[in-house]
Amino acid sequence: MIMGKRRNRLAFEVSPYLLQHAENPVDWWPWGEGAFSRAKREEKPVFLSIGYSTCHWCHVMAAESFEDEEVARLLNSTFVCIKVDREERPDLDAIYMEVSQMITGGGGWPLNVILTPDKKPFFAATYIPKESRGGRIGMLDLIPRIRQLWRNEREGLLNSAEEIAAALKASPGIPGMKLDESAIKSAYQNLVARFDAANGGFGGAPKFPSPTIFLFLLRHWRRTGEAGGLAMTEITLKAMRRGGIFDQVGYGFHRYSTDAEWHLPHFEKMLYDQAMIALAFLEAHQATGDEKYGRIAYEVFDYVLRDLRSPEGGFYSAENADSEGEEGKFYLWTREEVGSVLDGAEADLVAKLFDVRGEGNYREEATGRLIGKNVLHLKRPLVDGAREMEIPEPELKELEAARQKLFSAREGRVRPSKDDKVLADWNGLMVASLARGAQVLDDEELEEAASRAADFVLAKMRDGEGRLLHRYRKGSSGILGNLDDYAFLIWGLIELYEAGFKTKYLRAALDLARDLVSRFEDDEDGGFYFTPVDGEDLILRKKDGHDGALPSGNAVAVLDLLRLSRMTGDSKLQEVASRAFDAFAAQARGVPGAHLHLLSALDFALGPTSEVVVTGRAGSQDTKKMLRALRSKFLPRSVVLLRSQGWDPEIAGIAEFTEKMAMVDGKATAYVCSGEVCTSPTTDPAEMLLRLDSAAGGT
Known about the structure:
The chain is of the alpha+beta class and 699 residues long.
């Protein structure tokens, strides 16, 4: 008993999600050998429940079942019950999500899997109601059924678990298969076929932002000159920014849209979405030269730096969809609430442009009913909407003041809960995005934010041997780093080096890359396992190349190694990357649309690539002018190094080929190299860009 309340073992955990379940009457265990030893001793199956703190349906199932005494009694008497935070243990989540997809054809969270005491699964489901309804079995019927099978037909369950475990280990690879440009073409054609020309995005509802798609499409456009990739990207990014999936009042993107029009969001906000979506807008800005994409990236950064940054400089994981027990309550507005915050003219303007109605425009997901509340969204581009409604341009300028008033009023509401753990992989993505923003938007404050986060992870999220750790919260770091932690942080460090050319970040990226290869590479077949060679012994050591909500860790690692190889001249890194392409060639050829980030890496590998070395005085105007010219263009197959005036032992120690590259006539000088051949040096930024275009051979 703690503070007068019954508490289970989760009370001693760090994860906010596990702590949310510490007062459940379910006798929860955290994942660990203690739980499985008990299951073996008592000859009980294991009920494994996986979720995360900002998951709406996880909260629904918790309220219905895990907080219910009747369900808890059944669970405790039948199973050893284990709770897992999928964000703390993505290795476990990946294994048992694959099980769910094998058994049920789908997956999601909460994820509920029933295991034998040796961790092998024989049942999987997502959300399970307390009582059976609508053809879906409920906990009150499921648990007695499993108990009866375990007692009377255990042999069949054990055989089923063995078959599932064996199927998980089956290799999908085909020896000797290679990836080439035809895979890129197939993936592009697949996206063209799925594109929703009316609303943007791909497929129907629900619609996820999937920014890896845009990164791929922009690279395809740059390689081929085909306008379709750029057009699909622009149409979708604009639609997302207008839609309810974007928080029109406080900025930042919600997790996904429950409809095809980007109107009705699922309201949780994830750090990784902000990082990847901002990166897509920054690349669109570079590709098109359109400043509005840069402004939208700034809006995303405003949200992240305001609401997700810790005092120490790292970034928190997410904000919940729910507040006061209701999904979206913090974000929704009635027409009366808008009128109470804004004066009459302002309220009318906001109502017209952002589709605020008396009856509401927000429908409950479960019932489809209008409930008198509104998601602010633009039904059409702002200027077009104003023109159609004959709203004078001076009135449009009042919108920002109105937004700020709504924001201030909303800050007085009960906020959604924040998942305040810091994850190395998601912080790596945010560092990459902020650092790219610093480059593209010429903003030193963004570079400083990226540097603080990178420094925090490197200082606070490593063990006594210097190994990267996955999670930090309230002064405590732990859980051995996985492939994504290494790959995503290396990505961030490379971008951070190219933002400010501080050699310590490039050196840290190289050290982590070599550690990644030694701990994660499959020496026999190529590619990288998700867990390190000395990690926990699970029923499967996964090795995936496909993207999910995040880009594939294998794909990011491959592109990291290719970029570092070009920056340093280390051909061994390129050889490791080549073996990884071969490891996933069969999968990527079979389902190219699921391997877009790997194909973005392939675009880099196929080249032609360019190495640009700028030699000049750091901070001088001519050096800045040269770098601004580089950053104004979308050059996804280029890497950039800065060599300070005179002998620069730091960068020369990493990239020996820069040793003899000197300034010409005392001016900032660019050396453009491609295919192991460098052009003559130039002090003219325009000439440098012409040489890069010639080397790239694209648009």
